């Protein structure tokens, strides 16, 4: 079966997000070295500060790898790619709702709009991945 256009778009966005995560990881690695240099005169703290920042870079790298793998799975119409994206978007909804509550505790209109956009995108992707023609493209019963 031919790849649905929406699946192709989601796969490409997944690859783009993976690239942004890798770029973010590189920035955190450089930042960790920078923080380590700034704190070099403070014994024990320099290694700890730089390591914490670098650990965040590792987390970004792992998230980027997960999105790259998921993008490949979606592009190749592998059902595991669809399942991973469903899990990621479900987590995105949960954390988006938590973020929305946090925004309203210290209201900032721009951040509120950003959280709502995030929630709408996650909800749309979840809805789309459960459509019968999309499930059929991944080899699932409609």
Tally of individual helices: 5
Main sheet overview = none
What overall geometry do the principal axes of the alpha carbons give? flat
Distance between the termini: 14 Å
Question: Percent helix among the residues?
Answer: over 70%
Category from helices, strands and their pairing: mainly alpha
Number of strands: 0
| Average pLDDT over all residues | 88
Order of helices and strands: HHHHH
Which spans of ≥5 residues are poorly predicted at pLDDT below 50? none
The proportion of residues in beta strands is under 5%
How many structural units, i.e. domains?
Answer: 1
Instruction: Please state the CA-atom Rg, rounded to the nearest Å.
Output: 19 Å
The gist of it:
With 142 residues, the chain is an all-alpha fold. The chain contains five helices and no strands.
List keywords for this structure.
142 residues, 5 helices, flat, mainly alpha
Structure description:
This protein has 142 residues and is an all-alpha fold. The chain has one domain (5-137). The protein has helices at residues 5-38, 45-75, 79-105, 109-129, 132-137. Helix 1 (5-38) runs antiparallel to helix 2, helix 2 crosses helix 3 (79-105) and helix 3 runs antiparallel to helix 4 (109-129).
Question: What is the topological layout?
Answer:
Layout: H1 5-38, H2 45-75, H3 79-105, H4 109-129, H5 132-137
Helix pairs in contact: 1-2, 2-3, 3-4
């Amino acid at each position: 079966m031919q790849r649905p256009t929406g699946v192709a778009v989601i796969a490409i966005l997944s690859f783009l997000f993976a690239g942004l995560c890798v770029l973010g990881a590189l920035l955190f690695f450089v930042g960790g070295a920078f923080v380590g240099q700034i704190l070099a005169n403070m014994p024990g703290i320099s290694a700890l500060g730089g390591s914490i920042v670098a650990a965040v870079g590792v987390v970004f790298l792992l998230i980027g790898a997960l999105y790259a793998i998921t993008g490949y799975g979606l592009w190749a119409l592998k059902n595991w790619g669809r399942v991973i994206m469903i899990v990621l978007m479900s987590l995105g909804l949960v954390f988006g709702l938590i973020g929305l509550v946090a925004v309203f505790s210290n209201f900032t209109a721009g951040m509120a709009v950003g959280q709502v956009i995030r929630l709408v995108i996650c909800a749309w992707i979840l809805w789309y991945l459960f459509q019968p023609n999309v499930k059929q493209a991944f080899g699932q019963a409609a």
